[in-house]
Amino acid sequence: MIRIQSLNKRYGERSVLQDLNMHLAPGEFAFLQGRSGSGKSTLLKLLYRDIGDFSGQIEIAGKPIESIPKYELRRKIGVIFQSFELLERKTVFENIALAGEVVGVSHSDMVDEINRLLLRVGLQGREEAFPDQLSGGELQRVAIVRALLNRPALILADEPTGNLDSETASDIIRLLLELQAESQLAMLVVTHSDRLVAEFPSKAWKMIEGRVTANELI
Ligand SMILES: Nc1ncnc2c1ncn2[C@@H]1O[C@H](COP(=O)(O)OP(=O)(O)OP(=O)(O)O)[C@@H](O)[C@H]1O
């Protein structure tokens, strides 16, 4: 699903990612661990093309990333953020529906799928709630539904538990792993937390100062 070869990324004179070689198969789950500033978000941003300008190769589903039109990438990849990135003035339903709108799906074609996903994550009946009426764990579940709406083949999650207490963080990782297994999704989850990686033994890369130093299957 993701193949990275000899990837280097610089911000001006500063080298942020150095000679990365990574492979995530379709339907595979992996953590990406590393301290603040090690380059994790930069890698994720390159993968969903929020930023560009790199050397080396990034392939998504067998195609060089630069050859994939942005709208196609948005269908293939669902992204989840630490800060949830929900719009305060829109309801849960409207926030989720935005993901369909950007790829041209009408509301009426999304209703059943949104309801199915809300039920799956335990948020049935909360469609009309606004973000300020939800807990952090609930907000992240809304963001997960939004990321799943277009039936992506890959989910990228940038520190999805960073704003949650440790029990809720475990709940969210457990949910992501269940969804990943049910839908045969490839999933790359960035975390600072050694505890979460120990709790959910999985493939885990460790990034130290822009280099991936371990690639282990536990
Ligand atoms: N737009 C930018 N311009 C210049 N330098 C940047 C830019 N974005 C990130 N950096 C630098 O690149 C390095 C890696 O940052 P990145 O955000 O990828 O780290 P991270 O591992 O995700 O950190 P955190 O866990 O705190 O989010 C840092 O030293 C950061 O200061």
TrEMBL record:
SUPFAM superfamilies (alphabetical): P-loop containing nucleoside triphosphate hydrolases
Signal sequence extent: none
Record keyword Kinase present: no
Cited PANTHER family: CELL DIVISION ATP-BINDING PROTEIN FTSE, IMPORT ATP-BINDING PROTEIN
Protein name: ATP-binding cassette domain-containing protein
Keyword ATP-binding listed: yes
Database matches in InterPro entries: AAA+_ATPase, ABC_transporter-like_ATP-bd, ABC_transporter-like_CS, ABC_transpr_LolD-like, P-loop_NTPase
Species name: Paenibacillus agricola
Domain of life: Bacteria
GO molecular function, one term: ATP binding
UniProt keyword terms in alphabetical order: ATP-binding, Nucleotide-binding
